[in-house]
């Protein structure tokens, strides 16, 4: 029988990949989008269907995680079999500037969804996925993190997600909800938001290569992350909700790389080698061939409390979900740089026409 899914955060990176995956599996997909003064549906525009057409399989609804009545109404209307809560103020550094809003959307927003299911008495038939994060671990030791590793949130974002994690566990235990957490390590793609470090780097490399930018300004180059491809991770989300029993799972590649390595590899894709000079805030990266400075450190991108080391152990997901990531680190970086070269060249074309 056809299943119906509701994706909160459908306009984000993961929302776009998950929509594609569920549509390919024959789902009816509903998504919650925020009202915005500018277009915010670029990642899912290719999936848009005329709501009045016959056999519509993808529909968007206005809504917001900070608005409980709206969430209740949309859920009542849609009667989903599965809810994927991917909605969040998801930028760690921004959460230090907007801690209250981050708590409202990321922590209380999750509670509002769970409560809506309870009020509407849908808890026994609608499965719930919560987008939990490796940020919960805080990266305090240099060992791989798994489902049993103690949490130590190091930002308002991580603290808000910690509340959401435990509320998901609590509704499972208290009311028998099929509610699960995916504790996902960083996952990236050409659709990644431009202010996260990977996309900022690949866009910067493309702009420098096309002569539109001279230097890329970054923060901590020594942070290490376990970076995978978003397409692989949304498949893991779906697998989590297909299990008979709800549970919590780490999804990761099991490999960590530093921001510095990401930068070096991204420039390597366009045939440039970087030579580093100096340390910390004075550090500069030069193009080895031309001698031009192309990387500078800007302390504005340092965080009040940093997460230095994230490396996931996905053994449980491998064993129980038969899930594995399929995109090697090098392929991920290459795909992102090549995609951004195309994006930058398209933008150049538009500017030429306008000029
Ligand atoms: P994005 O930032 O790309 O997308 C977040 C989505 O949430 C967007 O659709 C955004 O809408 C929406 N949103 C933000 N605030 C609200 C709100 N108040 N009400 C309703 N919707 C809101 O994140 P990703 O796709 O990368 O991540 C998806 C989820 O997974 C997030 O919850 C994130 O915290 C979590 N996560 C992500 C990881 C990653 O590496 N990508 C790793 C672990 C967890 P709009 O487009 O209008 O801004
Ligand atoms: P993160 O991702 O904080 O891990 O959260 P981000 O790409 O923002 O930072 C990764 C690491 O890179 C360092 N860094 C910089 N970061 C940004 N954004 N900009 C810079 O210029 C820069 N220079 C160095 C950061 O200090 C950090 O150590 C992401 C989000 O998707 C969360 O929603 C998700 O929960 C986690 O991944 C897992």
UniProtKB/TrEMBL annotation:
Enzyme class: lyase
Highest taxon in the source lineage: Bacteria
Pfam family, one: GDP_Man_Dehyd
Keyword tags: Lyase, NADP, Nodulation
Catalytic activity reported: GDP-alpha-D-mannose = GDP-4-dehydro-alpha-D-rhamnose + H2O
Molecular function terms from GO: GDP-mannose 4,6-dehydratase activity; NADP+ binding
NAD(P)-binding domain: residues covered: 6-336
CDD domains, per database record: GDP_MD_SDR_e
Protein name: GDP-mannose 4,6-dehydratase
Native organism: Neorhizobium alkalisoli
One GO biological process term: 'de novo' GDP-L-fucose biosynthetic process
Role this protein plays: Catalyzes the conversion of GDP-D-mannose to GDP-4-dehydro-6-deoxy-D-mannose.
